[in-house]
Automatic annotation (TrEMBL):
This is Exodeoxyribonuclease-3. The lineage of its organism: Bacteria, Pseudomonadati, Thermodesulfobacteriota, Desulfobacteria, Desulfobacterales. Transmembrane segments: none annotated. One of its GO terms (biological process) is base-excision repair. The keyword Manganese applies. Probably binds two magnesium or manganese ions per subunit. The record marks H253 as: Interaction with DNA substrate. Signal peptide: none annotated. Its EC number is 3.1.11.2.
Amino acid sequence: MVQSPLKLISWNVNGLRAVMKKDFLKSIDKLDADIVALQETKIQQDQLTESMHRVRDYEAYFSHATVKKGYSGVATYTRITPEHVRYGIGEPRFDDEGRVIEMDLGDIVFFNVYFPNGQMSDERLQYKLDFYDAFFDHADDLRKQGKGVIVAGDFNTAHNEIDLKNPKSNANRSGFLRIERDWLDHIEQRGYVDTFRAFYPDTVKYSWWTYRFNARQNNAGWRIDCFFVTKDLFDSGRIADAFIDNDIYGSDHCPVGVVLNPS
């Protein structure tokens, strides 16, 4: 059970080895979070180093892609010892890409998820939509057990026009396709809340910028990194705030987070 306010962070680092060469530890110190969920770590089990395992005072958990090297992967660093840790959702076609770490914190289950990118092909777009289905079916099973659910990660979809700089020119690009946006509508209809948008319905902030065209300097970005939580958890006041930390560099994404009140 959560006994004191916790700061939870999600950050797509676009390569753990790369970000560790770019003041990663200083960023971790500045964030000072209780749980840090990293996506797109792009490492294999045999590439893990002592410095990756032992980051400050955190316990570390890693999930790796087995279908391809240097691809996908997630890592969760936590100061809160979980009751149980699970890797994947029990479906090999998704779990082989190392996209999910699930931590049981008692009354809450915390998910670190790197949702698929659908840009490569129609097949990958369908894979992405199938992953959404399978993942939230799994999360809903936990809700039925009375668990609050927190889903942190790179959703690889901007929900509404406010969530990206150039919505019209990206209307036919994966990440802002109507079918993908409809799925985020569906997630909300299933009883999940986009925490940042719930607290700040009119605020324009982004979490990802292409490396091209000086996009970050010009703030021409997308908000695709999110914390979704179950509506009953949000309505109970357990989520105190949500934020996007644009001041942290080292990746083409920046960290996003929430503050979780004690139960």
